[in-house]
Amino acid sequence: MTPIERFNQKVIRDKETGCDIWRGATDAKGYPLFYADGVHHRAARWIYSYLCGEIPTGLEMSHICHNRACVRIHPDHVVAETHKENMRRAWKAGSFEGTRNGRARLSMKDVVLIRRFSEEPYLFPPKLLSEMYDVSLRTIYNVINYETYFYVVPDLYEDLVLS
Predict the structure, then answer these.
(1) What's the number of CA atoms in the CB half-sphere (13 Å) around residue 57?
(2) Comparing C-alpha atoms, which of 145, 114, 107, 116 is closest to residue 132?
(3) Other CB atoms closer than 10 Å to residue 37's CB: what's the count?
(4) DSSP labels for 20-72?
(5) pLDDT tens digit string along 15-28?
(6) What's the CATH class of domain 3-92?
(7) What residues pair up with 80 in beta bridges, in sequence order?
């Protein structure tokens, strides 16, 4: 059996949404995985490469339909686009409402403000920010240095969060 035949056996079309729903293996985050050529691939990346050729450098697969299990390569479902476009689309869809971790103490707006306030010259020193947000000094430094909340990038979120 060819790889595309095996791939198609793991896909079911959802008549309501038009999504091609993956019924095979997934990674820990729920993204479909497909084994071909001796390697596990993200299924959407594999089928894109099969149908359209190599994914251009600097682009990633974006689920326009907001369904991680969808592997339909179509402008309304899964397309190749830049990380910035992908994150902006996810933001507008509400994928980042609140925070990713239920135990997180900082909102997206808090993160943007902490980074803005900590720019040189300091509007607020890190120690004061830790007191203002009732988090540890280490948390503030992790936010400032993109060790946590790395997906909150200024040029992408500042206009959306602070408007």
Answers:
(1) 0
(2) 114
(3) 7
(4) EEE-S-B-TTS-BEEEETTEEEEHHHHHHHHHH-SPPTTEEEEETTS-TTB--
(5) 999 999 999 999 98
(6) alpha beta
(7) 61
